[in-house]
Design goal:
The structure holds two protein chains of two kinds.
Chain A lengths: L3 H8 L1 H39 L3 E4 L13 E2 L2 H6 L4 E16 L2 E10 L12 E2 L8 E5 L9 E4 L2 E9 L10 E5 H9 L3 H12 L12 H10 L3 E2 L1 E6 L5 H12 L2 E4 H12 L1 H31 L2 H9 L4 H30 L11 H28 L9
Parallel strand pairs in A: 4-9, 6-8
Antiparallel strand pairs in A: 1-11, 1-12, 2-10, 3-4, 3-11, 5-8, 6-9, 7-8
Chain B lengths: L4 E10 L6 E11 L4 E5 L6 H8 L7 E6 L2 E5 L4 E2 L4 H8 E4 L11 H11 L4 H14 L15 H13 L5 E5 L7 H18 L2 E6 L10 E6 L2 E6 L7
Parallel strand pairs in B: 3-9, 3-10, 7-8, 8-9
Antiparallel strand pairs in B: 1-2, 1-4, 4-5, 5-6, 10-11
Helix pairs in contact in B: 3-4, 3-5, 5-6
The chains are: A alpha+beta, B alpha/beta.
Chain lengths: ~400, ~240
């Protein structure tokens, strides 16, 4: 038996392909939206993996350092390191800011870390690790910075000595890694004018500048100038130790908040990007409905254009199920063309997006199933119209 | 006459009560195999209704119809003898329309072969049958063409081949020459006469066309739902 749907598609392939391309671009946009969500989740997981930590120790009653601000003293790590089950504990700072390179500005997350400790970038794609204690930086390739370039962070210039990749903040900003001391300064040290103004303010305060207490003012000024804060302490546990148990000990004895990897993932995925996920979910739902409406409209219009032929087919003995099958196959064919075009376009344009777009094969497979279901549903309107056609319409009068 | 098509007391009423319209009133017709008869009448006389009843598209209100020696409808015995009117139309009735209404996405061969295929014949056998008919109708050279590539006369010949594809005992032709000029209209009638004689098919041609009326040997005039049979001129087509 002849495939009526196949012949019709071949006969008017131009119309089908053009319609399929239009639908495909819509499906491509849908796949990309799903990819944006997957990319956000992946960014969050990569952020946690790159830190190399099992536990994040942050300020009490905060969900830092990625979801909320966290400020703890930089000697806290010593006490943490002494707890049973802790293999390594290291200070880190995170600060999202604008970084200048010549006349160009990039939005990055500046990470302060101690070489050889958790928080260090996992691997380099070019250059070397930090060897000097100051003014060297490792940048993510997405920043656009190149080896040997000098970038300005606050008051100092840093030389890019290494490049890494897939290190981004939960907001998708690429990271720049600098020595911890420099990062602390960048984040917490005030500028000279502010320091002078603060010293004048302190000197004018009789409680801090007592005539009978020599050295008090100098001590207060020194305390105000040196900031010994960090945003978090990253902890690696001993082999055999349970992160949850070690985190519990930290919370109990150090009066700090300690999150395990699972808890941190929960914060990043379920809380930090929850609103974005809902937003994307809404877009996906709308795009699915729009795609369904378009397929339904196209198939319905195409069917209406063939009413006389359908009447003739019915009159000469074509079964209703063959006619319904023809329309269904055409809808599925259109969906298939659309899906292929959508998958190709999403794959082509995904790398051009500023944020990471992760196109998973599983999502593509699910999208294919949804597209086929949507096309099946969308064809019912046209099938109903075709089945209502009276074979008598083929005979004049 | 056992073969061909026979109609006795066929009536069709639309609606009921005061608004009822009797489109056909006790129509009698008898067409032998190989015979081509004309069905002539003004608009609204009941021609199309009769064609639809004969084509098993609508159910008559009363009467009896025999096709190829077999009763297909008898009101007194409960109406249609088969529930599968689709198969009845496919296997035992051929249709030719005012416009050819070829399926635009099938080539000429498949337009003709579709009917035997629908009847369950193998693709190769169906296409062989189509080739045979296209040959007989002198359009075999356009076998691979799309309908849109054919002239009006060629399209009508293909539609005749399609009507003959399942060797039905009767063909119903609904004004098949209406869109054609005199020469082509006469050519179509010549073909219908040839095919009726060659395949022993009874052909009923509904027409308004004054050019072709003299060709029929027998004509049924229909007016207000009633038919009157009269002898035609039976003029030879030169």
């Amino acid at each position: 038996m002849i495939s009526l749907a196949g012949r019709d598609i071949l006969h008017s392939w131009g119309k089908f392909v053009l319609t399929g391309i239009g639908l495909g671009l819509l499906i491509g946009a849908t796949l990309t939206m799903a990819g944006v969500y997957r990319g956000m989740v992946d960014d969050a997981q990569v952020l946690l993996s790159n830190s190399g930590a099992d536990i994040w120790v942050v300020q009490k009653d905060t969900q830092g350092p990625y979801a909320e601000a966290s400020n703890i003293k930089d000697d806290v790590y010593r006490g943490v390191r002494g707890l049973p089950g802790v293999a390594q504990a290291a200070n880190v700072t995170y600060l999202t800011m604008q970084v200048q390179q010549g006349t160009r500005e990039s939005r990055v997350m500046v990470v302060g870390f101690e070489p050889g400790q958790p928080g260090e970038p996992g691997y380099l794609v070019a250059g070397r690790r930090l060897l000097r204690g100051h003014f060297e930086a490792i940048a993510d390739v997405k920043t656009g910075f190149r080896l040997g370039e000098r970038i300005r962070i606050r008051r100092h210039d840093y030389e890019v000595v290494g490049l890494t990749q897939r290190t981004v903040s939960s907001g998708g900003d690429p990271m720049v890694f600098i020595p911890l001391k420099d990062a602390q300064e960048a984040q917490f040290l005030k500028d000279n004018d502010a320091i002078i103004a603060d010293r004048a303010r302190t000197a004018a305060n009789p409680a801090l500048n007592r005539p009978g207490v020599p050295g008090l003012l100098d001590a207060v000024n020194a305390a105000q100038t040196v900031n010994r804060s960090v945003n978090a302490v990253l902890v690696k546990v001993d082999a055999g130790a349970t992160p949850a148990a070690v985190a519990q000990e930290i919370r109990r004895w150090k009066h700090l908040q300690a999150y395990t990897r699972e808890q941190m993932e929960e914060i990043l995925v379920a809380k930090l990007i929850a609103t974005s996920a809902k937003q994307i979910g809404m877009f996906l739902a709308i795009l699915t409905v729009v795609s369904a409406a378009i397929v339904a409209f196209i198939i319905y219009t195409m069917t209406l254009g063939k009413i006389r032929e359908i009447a003739v087919l019915k009159l000469i003995g074509t079964r209703n199920r063959s006619i319904a099958g023809m329309i269904l196959q055409q809808a599925l064919g259109l969906g298939l063309i659309g899906f292929v075009v959508g998958k190709i376009s999403a794959t082509l344009w995904a790398p051009a997006f500023p944020k990471y777009v992760l196109l998973e094969n599983g999502d593509a497979l699910r999208a294919l199933v949804v597209v086929m279901l949507v096309c099946t549903l969308a064809s019912t309107l046209a099938i109903r119209a075709a089945l209502k056609v009276d074979p008598a319409e083929a005979i004049g009068g | 006459m056992d073969q061909g098509i026979h109609i006795e007391g066929l009536s069709k009423r639309y609606g009921a009560g005061d608004t009822a319209v009797d489109a056909l009133k006790e129509v009698n017709m008898s067409i032998a195999p190989g015979e081509v008869v004309g069905l002539v009448g003004p608009s609204g006389s009941g021609k199309t209704t009769l064609l639809k009843c004969l084509g098993a598209v609508i159910e008559p209100t009363r009467g009896r119809m025999t096709l190829g020696g077999e009763v297909i409808y008898d009101h007194a015995e409960g109406g249609w003898k088969t529930k599968d009117l689709r198969a009845l139309r496919r296997d035992r009735i051929g249709f030719i329309f005012q416009a050819p209404y070829l399926i635009p996405f099938l080539d000429v061969t498949d337009n003709v072969a579709l009917l035997p295929m629908l009847a369950g014949r193998a693709n190769a056998a169906s296409r062989a049958r189509a080739q045979e008919l296209l040959q007989a109708l002198d359009v075999a050279h356009r076998a691979k063409a799309q309908p849109s590539e054919l002239s009006g006369g060629e399209q009508q010949r293909v539609s005749i081949a399609r009507a003959l594809a399942n060797q039905p005992p009767v063909i119903l032709a609904d004004e098949p020459t209406a869109p054609l000029d005199s020469q082509r209209a006469l050519a179509v009638m010549r073909i219908l006469n040839q095919m009726a004689s060659q395949y022993q098919t009874a052909i009923i041609v509904v027409t308004h066309d004054e050019k072709i009326i003299p060709i029929f040997k027998r004509i049924y005039h229909i007016r207000d739902g009633r038919t009157v049979e009269e002898a035609g001129e039976g003029r030879q087509i030169s």
